[in-house]
């Protein structure tokens, strides 16, 4: 008995070292539920978003997900809205990690199932990194009203005026709340972070009758020197947030995307980029956006080109801004399927557009052997968006002032018309008709 007990204890002690990786998440989820997972281990290379792939059976599927690292733990969250009941898996590839004394590069696989049931509610995002005010979005997925309870973990350092003391814009000593949602209703719950003297990881629990989420919130301590920006919220996304693109080999398609500023302040100096897996296939109409005002959007084009081989590529388009808290990102997940002799379905969504776009190049106009036309010239041929300016690949010619000529002819016609009218009016009574009868009577 003692030998069995000792063996069991040794197994429990050595198990983490044998497995190398800890992947904590539920094995079953209801439809619409938000998947939350924690991944830890001795990683020699970091886990990036492009290393994570979702599969339904053996078919790769597009999922709106996000990833962050807090301390030594990776937090993964994914929306399962619109995902049908089935067996799914998460596969993390192309990362190095230690398993005992061995360096491993094997895929990390975690299976899960989406059941027939419907989740009480969905929550986004699945984790928070904050220095000030932040929001959590809740949606009731049931066909009846629902109450969601919110419980905020207190730490020994907190006071009634400390972390999360102000919820929904009001100050209170309690840290238990509830919110009611109608069927299908979406509400954004605003949290304020106050008087934090040390950075720490906290937990907010959102629960209903049948569902429980534990939302990790890492709060950075920040010394505020001014209060002018306390009510400013920077929030943005890329639409569509998920796109599945199917196309035949050796073809091109162009799609419209939007950068949406949903916050209450202007966002400046936005950089667009691609995950490495998509770089051979995708070009942007522009890689930087100067600024987008609050509650507005900016349209940009994405050109997709396929090669001569059948492939399935998973990656993302990233929008990055730099602010006082560092880099902030928004993602659009792309699943590109290249199929030989592919024929689109009649009801296929995410159709490409026919309007042409001028794609950027890394070469200057001189390197392209083109000409930059002057202000009063226009290009008589193809225009390329070169590194330094719009580049004419044919010749520059003087702009034809067709509008000026048209105005001149209109003025001339008006003058001629006026003169005709004037002379007809002035001399209308100067000529009488000749009456031969009157002449014969000697009256004329």
Using the coordinates above, name the CATH class of the largest domain: Mainly Beta
Rg (C-alpha, Å): 34 Å
N→C terminal distance: 154 Å
Main beta-sheet annotation? 5 strands, mixed
Structural class: mainly beta
By CATH, the topology of the largest domain is Immunoglobulin-like
Give the strand content.
35-45%
Number of strands: 34
CATH architecture of the largest domain: Sandwich
Strand order of the largest sheet: 2-11-8-4-5
What is the CATH superfamily of the largest domain? Immunoglobulins
The parts where pLDDT drops under 50 for at least 5 residues are 9-18, 155-174, 223-228
Explain briefly what this protein structure is.
The protein has 444 residues and is mainly β. It has three helices and 34 strands. The strands form nine sheets. It has a five-stranded mixed sheet with strand order 2-11-8-4-5, with no helix packed on it. A five-stranded antiparallel sheet has the order 12-14-19-16-17, with no helix packed on it.
Question: What keywords describe this structure?
Answer:
single chain, 444 residues, Immunoglobulin-like, 4 domains, 5-stranded mixed sheet, 5-stranded antiparallel sheet, 34 strands
